[in-house]
Amino acid sequence: MLIWSKSGRFLVWAFVVPLFAIVYGLPIAVIALASISGQWNDILPSKLTLVHYANAFRSDSFDSLKASIITGALASVAALVSGTWAALALRKMKPLRRRVLDLIFFVPSAVPSVSIGLGLLVAFSQPPLLLNGTRMIVLIAHFVLISAFTYGNVSAGLARLPVECEQIAESLGARPFYRLRRVTLPLLMPYLVAAFSLSFALSMGELGATVMIYPPGWVTLPVNIFALSDRGAIFDAATLTMILGAATLIVLWGLSRLSNRSVLR
Predict the structure, then answer these.
(1) Do 93 and 21 lie in a common domain?
(2) Which of 4, 45, 99, 188 is within CB 3.0–4.6 Å of 40 for a Cys-Cys bond?
(3) Is there a single domain that holds both residue 100 and residue 167?
């Protein structure tokens, strides 16, 4: 949109499309080919097979997929509730206090995920809160890592809401909870769905903290992918990578449809 001439646009597209294909398309294509490869000794695989996908749904890898989806869903719901609550509360505060608390909420996003995992491991490895070796510590780690993004999305949505809608509802005698339930939250729905989608996508791909704290029997898919690639099982790791991407895209597509329906209403 910033380039007005047709020749300039053509040159930009001629540069951007090949660059996009090389940077994004080529790695995905290689992973997709590796997931259906039985043997790969040349530029292209010499033997194609779907046995890796069949094994993925018959082994512990399917349990890893369920663990990732459950962890992502629960952590995203918790982050959405807390982030929305915090954004609504901070909106009424004075600018200085709001800026300070804003900074505090965004601290987890500035800290490496490995540090978060190490901190939780040290904090919850002794009584009275002994969570090391439980699934709860994984949920807490994911919640801490994604809560800042949820809060940021909801805060941005609140800043774009027309203040007149709430003021009109208040002038008509609507109580605070009624205004929240019938005015503010419906107007925020597209931003809430976007915040949940981003949180879920981040949780599904989280590795740094999870690999340090996951308990036996609750291995998420990224951890399983890392373990397989570390053992040299590249084809199996590529298969799980494709399954992880497909599962995430399906959930995000469903949330996008839900967001579009809320906007149309």
Answers:
(1) no
(2) 45
(3) yes
Bridge partners, residue 37, by sequence: 48
φ/ψ (deg, to 5) at 48: -105, 140
- Per-residue pLDDT reduced to its tens digit, 94-106: 788 888 888 888 8
Whether residue 55 is contained in a domain is answered as no
Q: Which of 51-60, 123-132, 210-219 holds the top average pLDDT?
A: 210-219
Domain-embedded: residue 141 = yes
**In this structure, are 34 and 165 located in the same domain?**
no
What local confidence, expressed as pLDDT, does residue 243 receive?
92
- Determine the Cα–Cα distance for residues 22 and 24; give it in Å rounded to an integer: 6
Span 249-265, mean pLDDT? 74
Number of domains the chain contains: 2
Structural domain that includes position 10: 6-48
| pLDDT at 261 exceeding the cut of 80 | no
Residue 230 counted as domain residue: yes
* CA–CA gap between residue 131 and residue 97 (Å, rounded): 33
Residues 6+ apart with CB under 8 A from 177: none
Q: State the chain's mean pLDDT as an integer.
A: 86
State the amino acid at position 214 in one-letter form.
Y
Task: Tell me, yes or no, whether 53 lies in a domain.
Answer: no
Would you say 226 and 22 are in contact if contact means Cβ atoms under 8 Å apart? no
- Long-range contacts made by residues 61-67, C-beta under 8 angstroms, separation at least 24? 61/221, 61/224, 61/236, 61/240, 61/243, 63/219, 64/219, 64/220, 64/221, 64/223, 64/224, 64/240, 65/221, 65/243, 65/244, 65/247, 67/218, 67/219, 67/220, 67/221
